[in-house]
Amino acid sequence: MESEQLKFLKEQIDRRITRINSSRLYYRRVAFWTYLSITILAAMSTIVLGLNFEIIKDILRIIALVISGCITVISAYNTFFDNKGMWIAYNDALNEIYKLKFAIEFREKQDYEIDQITIEQFKLQYQNILDELNDVWTRSKSI
C-alpha cells in the first residue's frame, strides 16, 4: 500500500512538472523573439543607413536612430530578464524532476514497500531541485 506522504509527493511532482514545463516554454519563446527582434532591427538599421537618397537623407537618419533605440531597449530587457538563462534553468530543473519521477516509479516496481527513509530522500531531492531553480532565478534577477 502506498503511503500518504509518497502519494502527496508524487502529486506535487506532477503539478510541478506542468508548471515548470509551462515556464520553460514561455522563456524559450520570449528568448527566441527577443533575439530575432534584435537581429531583424539591426539588419533594418544597416539597410536604412546604406540607402543613399539625398531627398530623404534626414528621414532615413532619424529612422535609423529610432531603430537603434529600439535595439537598445530590447537588449536591456533581454539582459535584465535573462530569458535564455531562465529557459535553460527551467529545462534543467524539468530534467531533474523527470529523473526523480523515474526513480520513484522504478522503486515502486520492486517487490517491497518504499520505506520512510527513502520517501524522505525523495522529498529532499525534490526540494533541492526547487531550491536550485529558485537560486538561479534569484541570481538572474539580482544583476
Describe the structure.
Helix content is 87%, strand content 0%. It has helices spanning 4-50, 57-81, 83-108, 116-141. The chain has 4 helices and no strands. α1 (4-50) runs antiparallel to α2. It is rod-shaped, with a radius of gyration of 24 Å. The chain has 143 residues and is mostly helical.
Overview features:
transmembrane, rod-shaped, transmembrane helix, SLATT domain-containing protein, 143 residues, mainly alpha, 4 helices, membrane, single chain
Pattern of helices and strands: HHHH
Radius of gyration: 24 Å
β-strand number:
0
- Could you name the ranges where pLDDT drops below 50 across 5 or more consecutive residues? none
Terminal CA distance reads 49 Å
Helix content: over 70%
Total helix count? 4
Task: Determine the strand fraction and express it as a percent band.
Answer: under 5%
Class of secondary structure makeup: mainly alpha
Mean pLDDT score: 93
Outline the biggest β-sheet.
none
Write down the overall geometry: rod-shaped
Set down the secondary structure blueprint.
Layout: H1 4-50, H2 57-81, H3 83-108, H4 116-141
Helix pairs in contact: 1-2, 1-3, 1-4, 3-4
Question: What is the compact description of this entry?
Answer:
By secondary structure, the protein is an all-alpha fold. The protein has helices at residues 4-50, 57-81, 83-108, 116-141.
